[in-house]
Amino acid sequence: MTTAGEPRLAPALVLASTSPRRRELLGRLGLTPARVAAPDIDETPLTGEQPVAYVRRLAEHKARAVERASDEVVLAGDTTVAVGRRILEKPADEADLRRMLALLSGRRHQCVSGVCVIDRAGTVRVRHAATTVAFKRLSAAEVDWYVASGEGMGKAGGYAIQGRAEAFVRFLSGSHSAVVGLPLFETRAMLATAGFALG
What we know:
The chain is of the alpha/beta class. It has 6 helices and 7 strands.
């Protein structure tokens, strides 16, 4: 326990995600997690669940699924792609990836990214960012090229904006980092509130 006049030690950050993209994004804030934990939760959308509610729920469930010591702050995030109210999860196979690319081709969609922080006092905070993205109309050759790259597998909505798919984006309004996997504006504010010095 600290006494009056003693500096309070900075909290240790636990990243409740094994995503290298989220770890890289945290690095842009000058932060390196003290440890990384893999939350084990069911990511199936609930019946009728809207995209914003979905990512906020999953971000919080991921953060709560990780054990936290008294000096630790847990950070978790979740990102999904939605066409209208339809949530596009990670493609199950190549045919599913092609179906998603066909849905995204030539139209706007939403990338919604939720972030949850549980501070040392156990206070839970959840925020989200919604970004509008529009793809060009994809030709059959472009779909074949992207599917063959393997980049879209394991990605929400079947694409990675930080990779080859960025060449398909003709319009983006909102947070680019949120599309990648972690909204940095919201994350920075939440971590500052949790006791991190971020300049």
